[in-house]
Amino acid sequence: MVPGCSGDEAVTKPGNPVPAAQEGGPLQRDTLVIATAQDAKDMLYVVSQTATDSAIIEATDMTAMDGDFDCKITYQPQLAASWQFSDDGKTITAHLREDITWEDGQPVTADDYKFTYDLVADPAVASPRLDSLAHMVPDARPKVIDAHTLEFQFKDAYDRTTMLSHLNIPPAPKHILDTPGLDRASLRGHALNATTPLANGPWRVATWEKNARIVLEPNPKFTGPKSFIPKLKRVIFKVIPEYATRILELENGSVDLVDQVLVADADKLAAEHPEIQLHRRGWRTMDSVLWNNLDPADYKAKLDPAKPGLKPTDVKPNHLFGDREVRRALASAIDVDKLIKDLLTSQVTGDVYGRPAIGTITPALCGAHNDTIQRLPFDPTSTRTQLAAIGWTDSNGDGWLDKGGEPMRFTMITNAGNQRRAKAAVIVQANLKEVGVDMQIEQLESNTFFERLRARDYDAALSGFAAGLLVDPGTFWSPNAEFNFTGYRNPKVDELIARGMAEPDYEKAKPTWQELQQVIYDDQPFAFLYWMDEIVAVNNRFQNTAIDLLSSYRRLYQWSVPVDRVKYTQ
User: What pLDDT was estimated at residue 50?
Assistant: First the structure.
């Protein structure tokens, strides 16, 4: 997800007071209450991983660049006032604004950026952003030229949009974190990450009641663009794990915004609640069944925090899903069309909010997405034939496949509170039962679920993600990438990623990305299910909303409510 705010360049000069609106003046009106399924977990971007984390950081932290999207990302200035590429395309020089300060009054400088990238590069931190540094020259990721100028040197020139994205990590405050006593391995437990984050953007975290709510209020020390000054009094992220409760509270007015609305509920809201406006975001989110290619027990036994960089090839393969033929056979047993019909199609209008997925590159990336891949057909008979060919048969007539006395039995984990995934899990379970596979379902609290993925502590998982709006497949498929939760590895994939990333011309790189998707689809490290045109419901008293492919609630500083429709005056 690309954090973003407006590129407006009107500024308050350093040292000048922020306009009166920051102190409760006429521009501050009303409160936006957002229902979220899970609490935030990490407030420092270098270690953050969940959607709630991203939403908070997007509001409270300035990033180098803002993004807009039309078939591909385009960037405008934000914390970086300008940037230039060298003639050979291997170096980007970024000039930071000189007026942005941290909430405690300290300036945001090039040293903060340098320190942040050092954190990302430090194996002890185990940052999920590590792949952003893969193409940078180690001694210049970045190099500090002066207090507000940075130079990022790359080993090769590649797609410029992707190169710029690797600069777009929100900075961490060096003046607080760069202390002799800081154990970087325990950074996730630091107060700035776990309890009291420090803002440099238009919003600040005023209250964080764990597993209950996060309250954002305008940052009174914000010194950036005047147009960024929030027009609301506060934004509340209210943690409501149960989807049905989130919808009920939207209907009774206790919350103002719910995302990931089920199609049936969207139909009901449209019919019964004229005060609720429905938005379609586009092809950003995808659900899949993740097959753990690694043996969870062996991974845990060999994982040593003191020696990071455990390779998939160092770990024994999963007894089931380390076998490509098992993965392909099970994918053929899952009825994706039924999932889309039952879960993502309106029974009232017939509108379809889903499409089959064939990889992790979103269909919104025009031309880079491979539209020609032939999906594995839903064919339970073929599944039984394929599994029998590799020794999985019902040898004792009990209805379940077995091999060498071991039944084909496993547990699929998913996150609680997501009704779509709960229903999808039941359909997948029924599909696999039809071919003699005993799959159990375990629902976990969202952060626990994510930790299990991160620790590779599972056999199968029904999960989803918000796709990056640029082509950088290494995030999921490079062997040691933090988000390669399946431990998948294929040297051909590594070769294609390297080739595509080395091509600076986006159009010339497209055939490589299309070939890459075919190779990965053939291997089925995921059982790719569907892309969703996600539905977001928001009370229509809010104006100037930004609900789009980039976020369900971005540029929160510009959201407003007309005076005659204000609901919360306190």
Answer: 85
